[in-house]
Request: fold
Amino acid sequence: MTVLVTGAAGFVGYHVCEALLARGEEVFGVDEINAYYDPSLKQARLARLERHTGFRFAKLSIADRDAVAEVMRKETEVDRIVHLAAQAGVRYSMVDPYAYVAANLMGHVVMLEAARHRPGLKHFVYASSSSVYGGNTKMPFSESDPVDLPVSLYGATKRADELMSHSYSHLYGLPQSGLRFFTVYGPWGRPDMAYFSFARAIMEGTPITLYDNGTLRRDFTYIDDIVSGVLGVLDRPPAAQAPRLLNIGNNRSETVRHLVSLLEEGLGRSAIIRDVPCPASDVTDTFADISAIKALTGFAPRTPLDVGIPRFLEWFKGWNRAR
Reply:
């Protein structure tokens, strides 16, 4: 049988595909490989996946319902879906909101429709985000916390995805799990994320922007820990009309300034810092309560930030030398 992975050339999607292939799964990946960030990085991830005999790929937009339907007609062995494709980025949602409506809303509905029309589909796992918690101040964030007031359009689209998924479980008995990711980082990561863009700026000797002197806090979660959680959840589908929402994070909140200090140490250079007030789209703190996913799968993050950042930098230096 086959796992369909959307966003297969993306950061998390690439690593999830690698892990599935490593355990002998057949994987069919889809991705539109857009230009939100450097497509050459996405192409490089895809090239690594295509070395595996168990991997197949189609370039398409998940918002294109005809293209997705055609894939589902041809890929008759798909029995699980890991839906990770989305328009990412909190701040970019204020630049191009339409991209978020197309990918995150229309794209999610298209994939739900594809899933509900697949006989015998075992599990639909999809990416949500810690952004759904908005400006919540109770720490750590728990899945039972109210999530009615997102502070970014990106967060609003992810909450809408959760609500649509709930309705599909109720109406059609579709087994689903939504994963609220917390600040994922690591090798082959996204250049628009702070840790990556900061590393590049420090290497180039250009300024980095810190909000509120770097006092914002994030639950930085290493990619290998994320992948172990995704696969653990995928292997444990819920009952047909009992959809799940699960935090997947490191269960530890650290300052952005500490992140910068680790980058400075690993690169052997000091950052040039420009301090500005925090914009309205950003939250002060994220911190995941992971008791639910731990109880379900035994999930236990193993990678603290001071271990994960050196691993990222090792890859980052090699990536830059090769370009």
Observations:
- The longest strand covers residues 123-129.
- The chain has one domain: 2-185+221-251+286-302.
- The domain at 2-185+221-251+286-302 is CATH 3.40.50.720 (Rossmann fold).
- The chain has a mean pLDDT of 96.
